[in-house]
Amino acid sequence: MGWYGLEAFNSAIKRTKKSLAEPFDFWKWIRLGIIIFFIGGGGMGIPNFNFPASWQTDDRNMEAPSTQEIIGKITQFWYQYQTYILIGLALIIFIILLFTLLSSILEFVFVESLVTNKVAIRAYFRKYMHPGFNLFIIKITLSVVFLSLFILAMLPVFRQLPSGTITPGLIFSSILWFFGIALIFAVLSGIISSFISLAIPVVMYQRVGIIMAIKKVVRRFKEDWRQIVVYWVARFFAWIAGSIVVGIMALMLFMVILFILLIPALILYFILSALGQGSGSFLLWAVMIPYGLIAAVVLILFLLIVSVPLPVLMKYHLLTFMQMWYPDVKVPFVEPGAGSQSST
Q1: Fewer CB within a 10 Å sphere, N or C end of the chain?
Q2: Which domain covers residue 148, as residue numbers?
């Protein structure tokens, strides 16, 4: 018996190649890009904090505000802009909830699109609204739990705030504590997210609820946890390597497209300038603004397209691994190349 997390890449690469390139379907890529945009993907960067050595010298006196002064300014700001702050927070929360709901349903849409090799967003969206909503409830519940635990973990930092001056040493130790706690929660969140992602095919192809599907995956994990650990490690390095390769290629293509778009813009600008249409001319802006909008649409379409291959590969890898690791889940793949279709 080999390691399924490594062996699954071979089939995943073949399926990705056939699905996306045999034949190439522009609108299929765009629809997949829209789905991936809402699902998210992304990486994690570690900020670099540099504290000048001069902060530790006796020759330089720093007048840092006291805790009472900071709290006083925050309180004053709150009372002055309380209504606007509450409206802004309500709007942000609404957008987050809406985005989370859409992404939860589109998780199922993404899997179905790759399994059937047919991207039908509206049809699959209606089909998976109920399990998607259940996943949304779980995500919100987990978010509240994690946020509450994070706040509790940060309480020691707030208790250390002195009644006097906030020192650079206190700031530095607080930052270290913050990122240490954030790293722990990021790992825990990643593990839970992985179990949820593995549970989605179980929901779809064993006709069970999301909670039962997660329990099945966890039960299978207890029986064969080594395969999952190798799977996690393999995907971690695959995401890093894939992100670097795709990022370099995307940057190069982006510069080429941007250069191509700039040439007509400069030509139009110089022609209009030669005709006496300066920066204050209505004609200049009437021509350049529509062209700018067209260029923006082209760049957005480009970003949607370049965002497709890596997530598609990794999702095919997950589904292929699931077939090997959990044989009871029968993923009904329609092999790419056998009549690829896409619709709204």
Answers
A1: N
A2: 4-45+64-343
In a domain? residue 113:
yes
Chain centroid to Cα 57, Å, comes to 43
Question: Which are the contacts of 271, defined by CB distance < 8 A and separation ≥ 6?
Answer: none
pLDDT at 164 over 60: no
Whether residue 104 is predicted with pLDDT greater than 90 in this model: the reply is yes
Q: Give a yes or no: residue 289 inside a domain.
A: yes
Predicted TM-score (pTM) above 0.90:
no
Q: Where are the beta strands (DSSP E) in 75-144?
A: 118-120
**Mean pLDDT (the chain, rounded):** 83
Phi, psi of 136 (to 5 degrees): -60, -45
Phi, psi of 75 (to 5 degrees): -65, -45
Nearest to 165 by CA among 55, 50, 26: 55
Report the distance separating Cα 188 and Cα 196, nearest Å: 12
- For the chain, the domain total comes to 1
| Contact call for residues 261 and 294 (beta carbons, < 8 A) | no
Q: Which residues of 120-139 are buried (b: 16+ CB within 10 A; e: fewer)?
A: bbeebbebbeebbebbbebb
Contact in structure between 293 and 170 (CB atoms under 8 Å):
no
Please write the tens of the pLDDT for every residue from 201-237. Answer: 999 999 999 999 999 999 999 998 999 999 999 999 9
Domain-located, residue 59: no
pLDDT of residue 59: 45
Q: What is the pLDDT of residue 142?
A: 93
In a domain, 55, yes or no: no
Residue 125 above 80 pLDDT?
yes
Instruction: Name 299's Cβ contacts closer than 8 Å, sequence gap at least 6.
Output: 254, 257, 258, 261
Contact yes or no for 105/133 (Cβ under 8 A)? yes
